[in-house]
Amino acid sequence: MIIVDAGMEFAAGETLGADYIVPDIRYIKQNKKKLRGIILSHGHLDHIGGLRDMLPELDYPTIYTTPLTLGIVKKLFDNKEDVAKIKFKIVDPDSDILRLGAFTIEFIRVNHNIPETMAMAIYTPKGVIFNSSDFKIDHTPAIDKPADLAKIARIGVEGVKLYIGDSLGSSKQGRAPSEKLIGENLDRIIKDTDSRILVATFASNVGRVIQLIQSAIKYNRVVFLSGRSMINNVEICQQLGYINAPKGSIRKVTNDIENMPDNRVLILCTGAQGEEFSALARMARGEHAQISLKPGDTILRSASTIPGNELQAALMVNQLVVKGINLVTNDDLDIHTSGHGGAEDHKLMLTLVNPEYFLPFYIEAFFRYEHRKLGLAQGIADDHILMPNQNGSIIELYDDGCRIADEKLDLDTVLIDGKGKGHLSGEYVIKARKIMAHDGVVSLIFKIDSQSKELVGNVQIESR
Predict the structure, then answer these.
(1) Cα–Cα 20 to 30 A to 343, which of 89, 297, 353, 392?
(2) Is 346 a catalytic residue?
(3) Which entry of 42, 112, 340, 346 is annotated as an active-site residue?
(4) Rounded mean pLDDT, 299-314
């Protein structure tokens, strides 16, 4: 067995207050003697975020990945003792071929919005599986090298049994704009703006963060970081040489920011989606401890709104504009592009890989079925496009074909809540939360001194 990526999912409303969701690895634990390693395609949490919970349960199998991804994995762990247990091997996608048990893995450079993203061709006894990872095809990337289309074409000519393809972006016409274009637009704004600049973007959009810091330093601005994930990712990029900055030019946000000339300040923060407790949302409400917005500040929202976040994002935008903020979004100028390709990128990948069978992957059903349409248009037969509709589906490869098995793994929704871990279907606490979400009582039991009116003893909180 090998594992390709080990992500987490941010908890939605139906998870009843839990922090995040991780894969159900009971089957892997039962067979962990067969496990030869974990291969990671890139450093985003939806591909690596489950490792903090999975690695200890699997006795720390070896991780195979690149330096940046490994650095972000290590930041997932809270103490040095756990980090010291991580076994790893750094791979170079331009030269390394990995042999793990029955599998041989060849890595391929692709573009995304974080450097060092890799697709992989997995050679099995029953044919080649090509896994695209998250990708777009960027001929002029800002940080990385361009995708290795020649290697993808060579693997396609040699023969691919099954293509597992990232489906996000398949419904959008054309191609995703180049990160170089976005960087040039951001650079121009930073150069021509005299006010303080705040940029809200995803901390995981490491390529964008690197470009912003480079431009800020070029125009003599000090970069202030707000948000734990933003600080962690910038530290890793500095350690690996992606960011070279003079001492003192990158700092955590402190109250000193108010004493610096406006044209020397660039604040990099999280909160582009308007999340309630994010840095930018707290600034919009006037609740940030160190930063008070003032008329004339320029805010760049370098992100698109994720479906489901429209209301909270709109609320934040409204709170910002009434403060007299100069708000710049992607509607005004190209200051954000997706890390996922448009339809033309997907068509090119399908053409180069030229698979016998095709599995649209990595995203909700709507996008997978849009990706399926592209596969049909490219000439892949309908019965050669695999569309499993449940988590736990098993894909079987044979000498003469590929199919979805009749049986499935019984996979549960595994929730992480603080330091607790529970299964959505099985844990008493989760069942109790489900009931209380509709019909519940919270009682507070306490004693008050009738004379002094002061609290006596502790407050007891019970839920029913």
Answers:
(1) 392
(2) no
(3) 340
(4) 79
